[in-house]
Amino acid sequence: MISLLLATRADLICAVTAAALSVVGSGIIILLNVRFKEYRDNFFRNLIFILSIYDAIISFSFMIPGSVGKVFCKFQGYFIVYSALMPVFISLCIAIITYLNVVRRSTKKQLKTLFKKMHIICNVLALSIMFFSILFADSVSFPNTNWCFIKGQEMLGTFYISIWICTIISFILYLLIVKKIREIYKELDGLVDIGDKSRKTENLKVQFRMSTIPLSLIFTWLIASIRRTREIFWENPKQINTLNILQSLTNPMQGLFDCFVFVIFSSYSRKKVKELICCAESEKEKYPPEIDSDSKL
């Protein structure tokens, strides 16, 4: 009993800590986009901004203990379905948009219109799966973790399979994108116009970093998928405390992962974070302008 209590407390601490760090990571990306016009003017950084908003929402939902009440536990269980699916769906949309831009050479104007439609479809799908879970799922359970979740085999088919289908498709698309980006880099070596080369290179860097998004999804959902599969197909499976703690650490972490990729590993974004906090330089580095709406990479 004591060991179970300690494990539950460890789950709680890990989940809240991971979620809080993820909120901070998402918040940094959101603040950069809100504060600096050069971020708002860059279409692909705007896509990451939208993804970060959904990352922050799912992290917040993990921060509040589901044990505060039965009604809230049910609300949290159902809301997690929507808030967890949206970053996955948006990640797939970003992969499709990036593929169309890099490989198929679609223009920014075309991609903006397409993304608006895809964003609506993503919300409809996520809400549909959430309402499906309300109607057909077995129950909402508060296990030895920080949050409530929906039990039942229906959730394996609608929730986790949806996540992994999107992740696998995104991964395949980014393999094609990275291959094409490498080819474009070789073409850029022959450019004489330094300004044009700098502009295109900066866009390619952002798009190349986007190729890590499927890795963040795998990192976020692998442990949770293993654990839920055990609980669905094995009757009363033995609780593995290490697995529970790993899920508590990884489930809310996509926002922090994205912050590392798009901020920490970007020298320009690190400078803008310093400027945002306290250390604005007298002569600001100019961010390379994005490719015009009717031009192609």
Automatic annotation (TrEMBL):
Any Gene Ontology biological process: adenylate cyclase-activating G protein-coupled receptor signaling pathway
Major subcellular location class: membrane
Alphabetically ordered keywords of this record: Membrane, Receptor, Transmembrane, Transmembrane helix
Coiled coil: none
One Pfam family here: 7tm_1
Keyword Transmembrane helix among record annotations: yes
Localization, UniProt: Membrane
GO MF annotation terms: G protein-coupled receptor activity
Bilayer-spanning residue ranges: 12-34, 46-65, 77-100, 120-137, 157-177
Cellular component terms per the entry's GO annotation: plasma membrane
Membrane topology according to the record: Multi-pass membrane protein
Database matches in InterPro entries: GCR1-cAMP_receptor (IPR022343), GPCR_Rhodpsn (IPR000276)
Protein name: G protein-coupled receptor
Species in which this protein is naturally found: Anaeramoeba flamelloides
